[in-house]
Automatic annotation (TrEMBL):
Sequence similarity: Belongs to the GSP K family.
A biological process term (GO) from this entry: protein secretion
Domain T2SS protein K first SAM-like: 104-192
Identification of the protein by name: T2SS protein K first SAM-like domain-containing protein
Signal sequence interval, chain numbering: none
Keywords, alphabetical: Cell inner membrane, Cell membrane, Membrane, Protein transport, Transmembrane, Transmembrane helix, Transport
Gene Ontology CC: plasma membrane
Superkingdom classification of source: Bacteria
TM region(s), chain numbering: 12-31
UniProt subcellular location: Cell inner membrane
Amino acid sequence: MNPKGTRQRGFALPAAVAGIGIFALVAVSILEWGRGTTALLRGQASQARLEAAADAGLMLAIHGLGIDDRARRWPIGGPPRTLGFDGVAVTVTVEDERGKVPINAVDTEIIRALLAHAGADGQKLDELTDAVEDWIDEDDRPRLHGAEREDYAARGIVPRNGGFRSVDEIALVRGMDPAIFAAIAPLVTLVPRADVGVIDGRHASAAVLEIMAGTGPDSIALIGRQREEQGQQVAIALPDNEPLALQLVTIRVSARLGPDAGLTRATIVEFTGDRRRPYWIRSYR
């Protein structure tokens, strides 16, 4: 008997077992990596389908608004349109920017009503109202509950001391939480007004009518607009003598792919009246 040979065979068995274990570990790692890569690719494919469907809904709305035939032209306002692209459910709404709250040109009472509609109350309402006005005004003197430059320094933000340049900028105001911002974003516009606080009530939502006019829940105009939004009456279209040129609208597109995947875009479009370049994209988010 060769003791040396026995020892070599004794070492060979544990080495083989260890090798099998390492191989199995590598195989499991490769399988897990493969599963992760597959899930990532599926997620990217779903996102691409959502983006393509949202863009298709946007372009269809732009085309529909520009149709010369009034019988086929999409009206501004009214109930959402539901479409489908490649298995993606798409909802499209068209909002007239003239029917929104001109946040850069309204007084304290309207700003306060806007924030209250979004759910702010008590001290939170006082602080947000003053902070919004401090952001817009041209001085560095904070109001009683407001905020100016030094109050934003820790966040690396410099308040505008002028009108908001984008709707997203409103989210930077001190105390503005995501829920309140999400509630007011669809209701405001940065389009300047020749007359401060004037809106086009024909295209204002029920919420904007209530905020701007101080109407109560039993107002005839408010009830009529609520019914229109629910599809119970025809949306107001542009009169024959009112061209689409130089009008700004927000086209809001929501794309859904199953219960968990979704995408929402809000695009501000200005129609020019020039057939060579019929529209401009003013904001795309």
